[in-house]
Design goal:
Length: 446
């Protein structure tokens, strides 16, 4: 784990430490308020620069005085999944509006445990430190990291509690099925502790399991707590780390990627929107999306290449067929269109098949066509296709007007004639092509 900075904040004090994989070193501490926040942020940046110039990441851990815990039950699963609905329910449990706090939630069915903090001070801290080149990894309650570490090493029962004592207060967190259900800050005065535990025990008389109270601390004797004479309670004292030690141990696991932040109260402001405890996960997710999109593009490109290869094969095959059928003709640009046209020309001369109808004599329509040709017109017929309903004719005449004259003569004879397609021949004369059709009833009668 690289060296990182921990900034422990309470209502009026701050404490800065450097944490490596082996140790935690105290760097600086002092008092703060909103009016002097820029001065304090500058001092923190200078202290980190003097201690280790490579450190630019800071984790803010909030003391209990800056946190507002709440526990409530939702009316439906839909409400429990809605961040907006949870915000409204949280308003009922704390003396602040939802838009004035940063909050995170842990859900267990319809039961919800929430931790909130005031939005304005945290946004001011993040902005002040960010202006001095410090990145805020995340903001989270110090106690939440401590109790997550505690649950990882303690054998929790159905209903249990963890307690830490400092010089000024005692923090008591209660769990149900290893999930937090209450977080209270109590006086170190033994009478108050004794009274609270008695009341708490009376509220859980229906439990088959007694309340197991854990005290991860350096203390090995519960007598200093003033709770040894609590009726119907079982006190187990566990020698272990203090509140801050527990929090920093859990923090090292989070930074190593083995655990997640239980309550993330990081404000999303400007540059901080892309930073936080899940920034590596987010970067990995974005990379996975890029790889997925890249694979889709590569797959589509491969399919396009295969389709283009098949198209090229078909074009080559069409060109080979054309060269075989028309060895003396120039290869046209649209081979497929030319082949379809030639196939259409040959459709009338195909052999008889079972699907074809009986052939109709073309003599009547040929006679009608020849009768319609003007007697004084010099005409050379190059090719013709005649069926029972019309004639497809290619030929040569002297002038362009002769082709139009021929078409007019055929129309006078009752044919439906398309305008002739003409072109000047290299030497002399004009080539033409026209199609003449008889109306359906006449063609069938013929």
């Amino acid at each position: 784990m690289k060296t990182a900075a921990n900034l422990f904040l309470d209502r009026t004090t701050w404490d800065l430490t450097l944490q490596t994989s082996k140790e935690v070193v105290d760097v600086d501490n002092g008092h703060w308020d909103s009016d002097r926040l820029d001065v304090v942020a500058q001092r923190i940046a200078e202290s980190l620069d003097e201690a280790d110039a490579r450190v630019h990441h800071v984790t803010i851990l909030l003391g209990a005085s800056l946190c507002l815990p709440a526990c409530f039950t939702c009316e439906s699963q839909r409400q429990a999944r809605s961040a907006e609905a949870l915000g409204y329910r949280l308003e009922e449990a704390i003396p602040l509006a939802a838009e004035d706090v940063l909050a995170d939630f842990q859900r267990d069915g319809l039961s919800v445990f929430a931790v909130a903090t005031r939005r304005a001070p945290m946004e001011a801290w993040v902005l002040a430190l960010g202006e001095r080149g410090l990145t805020i990894d995340f903001v989270t309650p110090e106690a939440s990291l401590a109790w997550e570490y505690h649950l990882g090493i303690a054998k929790g029962k159905q209903h249990s509690a963890a307690m830490w004592q400092t010089n000024h207060e005692t923090q008591l967190i209660e769990f149900q099925d290893r999930r937090p259900i209450a977080w209270q800050v109590l006086s170190n005065e033994p009478t108050e502790l004794r009274q609270h535990l008695k009341v708490q025990r009376l509220g859980n008389q229906t439990d088959d399991q007694p309340i197991l109270l854990y005290q991860p601390s350096k203390t090995s004797d519960a007598s200093g707590l003033g709770v040894v004479d609590v009726d119907h309670s079982t006190i187990h004292v566990i020698e272990g780390p203090t509140l801050r030690e527990s929090a920093t141990k859990r923090l090292s696991e989070i930074r190593a990627g083995r655990q997640r932040v239980p309550f993330d109260l990081t404000p999303v402001t400007g540059k901080q929107s892309a930073r936080g405890p899940l920034r590596l996960d987010l970067a990995a997710f974005q990379l996975a999306i890029i790889v997925l999109l890249g694979s889709f593009v590569f797959s589509a490109w491969q399919q396009l290449q295969r389709a283009q290869s098949k198209t090229d094969q078909h074009v080559i095959a069409q060109e080979e067929v054309f060269r075989e059928l028309f060895p003396e003709s120039r290869l046209p640009v649209g081979v497929l269109s030319r082949l379809k046209s030639e196939r259409g020309k040959l459709a009338g001369v195909r052999g008889k098949s079972e699907d074809q109808v009986d052939p109709i004599s073309v003599l009547p329509i040929l006679h009608r066509f020849l009768s319609a040709v003007p007697s004084d017109m010099r005409l050379r017929i190059v090719s013709s296709k005649i069926d029972g309903e019309g004639i497809d004719l290619s030929g040569e005449v002297r002038e362009f007007a002769d082709a139009d004259r021929l078409a007019a003569a055929l129309r006078s004879a009752g044919f439906l004639v398309t305008p002739p397609r003409t072109s000047r021949l290299p030497d002399q004369g004009v080539s033409f092509r026209l199609e003449a059709q008889l109306p359906n009833e006449e063609g069938n009668d013929g």
